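Help wanted!
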Amino acid sequence: MKGFKFAGICAGIKKNGGKDLGLIYCEKPASAAALFTRNKVMAAPVILGKEKIKNGSCQAVLVNSGNANCFTGKKGIADAIACSKLLGDCLDIDEDLVLVSSTGVIGANLPMDKFEAGIPEIVKHLSSEGMDDFADAILTTDTHRKMVKQNGEIGNKIFSIMGIAKGSGMIRPDMATMLAFICTDAEISPQDLKICLSSANEKSFNRITIDGDTSTNDTLLVFANGSSDVKINNMDSKIVFQNALDEVCFQLAKMVVKDGEGATKFVQIIVKGAATKEDAFKASEAIAHSNLVKTAIYGEDPNWGRITAAAGRSGAQVVPERMDLFFDDQPLVLNGNWMGAEAEKNTAQIMKNSEITITLNLNLGHATDHFFFCDFSEDYVKINADYRT
Amino acid sequence: MKGFKFAGICAGIKKNGGKDLGLIYCEKPASAAALFTRNKVMAAPVILGKEKIKNGSCQAVLVNSGNANCFTGKKGIADAIACSKLLGDCLDIDEDLVLVSSTGVIGANLPMDKFEAGIPEIVKHLSSEGMDDFADAILTTDTHRKMVKQNGEIGNKIFSIMGIAKGSGMIRPDMATMLAFICTDAEISPQDLKICLSSANEKSFNRITIDGDTSTNDTLLVFANGSSDVKINNMDSKIVFQNALDEVCFQLAKMVVKDGEGATKFVQIIVKGAATKEDAFKASEAIAHSNLVKTAIYGEDPNWGRITAAAGRSGAQVVPERMDLFFDDQPLVLNGNWMGAEAEKNTAQIMKNSEITITLNLNLGHATDHFFFCDFSEDYVKINADYRT
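Answered by r_m:
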């Protein structure tokens, strides 16, 4: 994409020697908007980023994996500032236009010697073709890089949005987990960009059981450099841009869930017919977070008792005798009645698929909500029992 | 205990042929109080029991394992009533004094032929020594029976409280999980008994991460038959009785956690110095429910980043730079600073123990709360992926 350059190198921050330092650089200052974790234990780069993004402009973001720079106190903030400053010097841009972002283990100070050597080095590697290296450098327990590109057309002109994410796909991500960086060549004001980003986030990253248990480092950042000459400045163009941004965020969020630690299946739960929007949210969230539902899905068991029980404890208004439950198009419960052995057999067959849609109709109103989640296997436990060793 | 009889038999309800029908019988009607699940998807015996207990008197409770009689609609209610009626007839007591209780798989109707044969049979087995058989008959995925006895003394007279529980010790028990039956020979009004039971429950079963995710069948029932001639009718005697009941509930709750599915460690999290009682509850609950904390404990990793991050996302007021974190008596974080490699080494040693106390001091006020929980191993996933097969 015109005007953006990327790089990713091995700076020696990760113990395994893999790529661990990434950089996105815009040739001129871009409109920028960002959303950060709601966790009160915030990583140093998040504390800093929240302040810096207020000016609505950004020209570079430096991302490291292997160390979250979280719970590192004043030293952590000073380190993050020192990295910004050094990068600003190396790129010859204002340090106010530099953001930093970190992911990895909590509680250890950044190895500043690696950054002092790595930052001048990475600047040399910047290239318009460097996005793969960047995407690799920000990974932690991810099994593969996560990139999406989407084009949009406004008045016969084409604009692009490219997103790169990292998410170890933790099912309840309590820590340094989810980073996503989005670049677009559309021209849009920082204010409009923030509105579009919030809206896209609400439908994607906020529906993959990520935000409820916000990590200390979650960051979603978008740059718009205007290099396509496509202006997003009226209702029609905003709709096109929003749709494209929604799609990029949704695809990235889906990739994060699919690459979930130990995940073998990708599941969408849709709660329909709820009395209120809040009820629909509560019921779908409770089901998507339930360890018992997740383990049953891993066991390919259409355990509808656990799904309805999770809805029952969610705080949402539910009436068991009204509930309908579908696995894909197969009804297993209608009006609170189990549909019998044949339906169960068909459902068991559906459970063998790698993507499953579960629909719970509460039949109490018209509100709907949904969540995307993955199953829960022994490998999740293995990965997380041994994470720091 | 004078005036109580027990039985437990194999009635053919469980597929594995083990004991699955239990009975407690009081020779005369006893004061009774009960607490039930808060889940809106309630099992039939819970719906029925909530009504029946209102009269404050009970003479028999029939408990089956292997089938929760939940999500069984009108048929489920009719089956539960039929069982009560048959037992009342066999014991020659008013069916209003009979409670029924079920635990096991959700969504299947009770095999009524087994109850029609089993109920007349179990009555023949009633014996004052039958408590072990009863305790075995109510188990599901439990690995052993759970019984506690506690004596108290008031005015040179001794009273006893005996508790029998079943709990598969699910970490987030979304389904037919926790049953506890308590018998005492003290004399106490149903009203006072309910107050004492609620108070004991709040400190025990409601602090083992059970009640937040109430199952569809959770039941805690206490009978007081007065056979000891000890009257609980003034402040002094109530304090003695409350303490004894607290201890019985606490020990049973602890047994449930220790026998948690796949559990290898018993952990107490204490949150101190919270700004409000609600904050202390929120932070301790979030930590006790965190899969990442649980898996780290299983891995014997004092992963304080995950503990503090769970507190950070709990909604409680927290300031990272104020936090102190102890494992048993070993400080690992003081004023938000990691205490270094030596402290980490000592903590890692403590993590090898089978019982661990973790104390998080928020240093923002004077409120305290606690939770008991267990770790989270591959075996939890195995047990719950295959539960219905």
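OP: Thanks! One thing I noticed: Chain A is about 35% helix and 30% strand.
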